[in-house]
Amino acid sequence: MAPSAVPVNGFDPKDNSSLSRPTKRLRIDDTLPCSEPESEDPAAIPPHPLGVKPSGNALTSNVNLKARCGHFAILPDELLAQFLEFLDAPALVRLGSTCKALYAFTRFEELWRALFIESRPDKFQWRGSWRSTYLDLPASQQAHVDCSGLFSDVLYRPFQCTYTPLKPFTDSIPTENLIPRLADLTTEEFSTKWTNKPFILTSPVKEWPIFGKWTTEYLVDKYADVPFRAEAVDWPLKTYVDYMNNNKDESPLYLFDRSFAEKMQLAVGKDVQDAAYWAPSCFGEDLFAVLGDQRPDSRWMIMGPARSGSTFHKDPNATSAWNAPLTGSKYWLMFPSSASLPPPPGVIVSEDSSEITAPLSIAEYLLSFHELARATPGCREGICHAGEILYVPSGWFHLVLNLEESIALTQNFVPRAKLPDVLGFLRDQADQTSGFKDDVTDPFGLFVERLGRAYPEVLAEGMKKLEEKAKPKKGKWEELVKGGADDKAEEQGGFAFGFGFADDEDAEIA
Ligand SMILES: O=C(O)CCC(=O)C(=O)O
Ligand SMILES: [Fe+2]
């Protein structure tokens, strides 16, 4: 990985132990290459609203506003920015009125985002930026100060990331990386051939009653005042949509609500009267259903503007998932994981796998690591459009970018073929389980007891497979000569040193 990525926890919105992203997210290292992808038109990035330019421009300029901010001038930009995190709003406003350089530094949106979120106001109006919203400044009262002559990567880089076109990263996907696209699968096909690799189904969601009906306008009309969770805040839907339509955040606040069905009084399930949607039948039974209302969180409504999305993570409790955009489309970048595989480029996993660290934003990741990621064996990429549904196998790393404003539903589940993974996770990584209610103190024990009662043979088979997985692996040589490499390829979705795999044959690669 590039040495300059700032490691912070990756954002897994489904993991309630990391419900909020780090709120103060100033870069402290500006050595990241500021190159733009070749296909990109540099003119697409507008001038910085305060006239700030990247640090390198100071070399050819005979003015430097930073030199004129008294004792603060000796602080490197990174340190100055970190110092400002300790100030409250009145102190930021006062300090910002002393000179142009400090004005620009104290305007930094991440500072105001953190202050606003901490302040948790009951009522407010979104005013286009975190600072204006915190200070309740109407557009007519927002100052426009020209700070040209200030050269700072710390201030410029997030702005660059906000305006760098991201679509070019999602074009021209190499054929070998393409996530297979199929109309639909039978339960048999899914369980025998497709549980270990991502795929997109183009038919089932088009049958849902809410497909074609749910649009942002429709939902705002119906649920304007209903609060939905967006990372660390609960905002009425109309406020979130105001934000979504008018913000300049590098990583826009992402609506990810696990109680949407209750809040919107939706009926869910194929044979349920007036159901809004259901899980496609190919996925078969969901073994976590045996946990009843003690199952961990399992469904979410997701909404966000173009450029919002999820940074690299794996889904909780080794569950598998499906994700279905109802409007907009999503770019997916995915990697299999196993004890013997490195994590995706630019992602660091702690020794016990409990922490995943990755660059701060999707834009930052794509700018710094996309080329390498795309060339890494095992990489899978695809675009899931409105009305389609993507399958995320248990344990796969994924990064997701909304290419347009999008509303989606996602559900996590345990298909039978993935039972050993889930049993193993609950048993061996008990400290990393998430989404269970507080009264569930032993998720493994509870799951084994309930599954044993409902489907004893399924549990016995799952435990047997789990034990088999733990047996010492064949040596490398044996693997190569006796075909072990192929077993592994199947395990990891067709990726391995090998000669191509027949079970992708019926995939329609678009
Ligand atoms: O739609 C997204 O941002 C992706 C959400 C996700 O990670 C998932 O469904 O597992
Ligand atoms: Fe996920």
From TrEMBL:
Classification via SUPFAM superfamilies: Clavaminate synthase-like, F-box domain
Span of domain F-box: 69-115
UniProt-annotated stretches for the region Disordered: 1-52
Domain JmjC: 268-430
InterPro entries, per the entry: Cupin_8, F-box-like_dom_sf, F-box_dom, JmjC_dom, JMJD6_ArgDemeth/LysHydrox
Domain of life: Eukaryota
Name assigned to this protein: Uncharacterized protein
